[in-house]
Design goal:
The protein has 126 residues and is mostly beta strands. The chain is built from no helices and eleven strands. The strands form two sheets. Strands 2, 4, 5, 6, 9, 10 and 11 form a seven-stranded mixed sheet that branches. A hairpin with a 6-residue loop joins β4 and β5. The chain is globular, with a radius of gyration of 13 Å. The N and C termini lie far apart (37 Å). The model has no long low-confidence stretch (mean pLDDT 94).
Length: 126
């Protein structure tokens, strides 16, 4: 599966952005999908994930719970990250990732994800 993320930009603290990730391939629904973010010089961190299938379970990094919402649309081969109440510390390059639905469930480890998009920059000004 190939992934392409979009929707990043510059926003003031307290604002909102919606990231999108378009996936190619006919088996999109068989993949767990995740969003990660990375600040230059630091490790890539898990943000949010949604499990495979139509009724996907969602899971989040603690710092974004209640502010970010991940969702998927299997008919459109897409996954989204709605980000509300943004903070300057949310500034990062955001990556979408796909993990084939076998083995470890609800993984927050980047090494478990097989496919990555190119990243989209989110900048939150104070």
């Amino acid at each position: 599966v190939q992934l392409q993320a979009s929707g990043g930009g510059l926003v003031q603290a307290g604002g909102s952005l919606r990231l999108s990730c378009a996936a190619s391939g006919r088996t999109f629904s068989e993949y767990d999908m995740g969003w990660f973010r990375q600040v230059p010089g630091k490790e890539r961190d898990f943000v949010a994930g949604v499990s495979w299938g139509g009724g996907g379970r969602t899971y989040y990094q603690d710092s974004v719970k209640g502010r970010f919402t991940i969702s998927r649309d299997n008919a459109k081969n897409a996954v989204y990250l709605q980000m509300n109440s943004l903070k300057p510390e949310d500034t990062a390059i955001y990556y979408c990732a796909a993990k084939y639905a076998s083995g470890i469930l609800y993984s927050k480890e980047s090494s478990h994800y097989d496919h990555w998009g190119q990243g989209t920059l989110v900048t939150v000004s104070s």
